[in-house]
Amino acid sequence: MFPVNRPRRLRRNEALRGMVRETHLSTSGLVYPMFACPGTKVRNEVASMPGIYQQSPDQIVEECRELVDLGVPAVILFGLPEKKDEIGSEASSPTGAVQLSIEAIRKAKLNLLVITDVCLCEYTSHGHCGVIRDGEVLNDPSLELLANAALSHARAGADMVAPSDMMDGRVGAIREKLDEHKFQDIAIMAYAAKYCSAFYGPFREAADSAPQFGDRRSYQMDPANVREALREVAEDIEEGADIIMVKPALSYLDVIARVRDRFDLPVAAYNVSAEFSMVKAAARNGWIDEQRIVLEIMTSIQRAGASIVLTYHAKDVARWLNRC
Ligand code: PBG
Question: What per-residue confidence (pLDDT) applies to 5?
Answer without folding.
Answer: 97
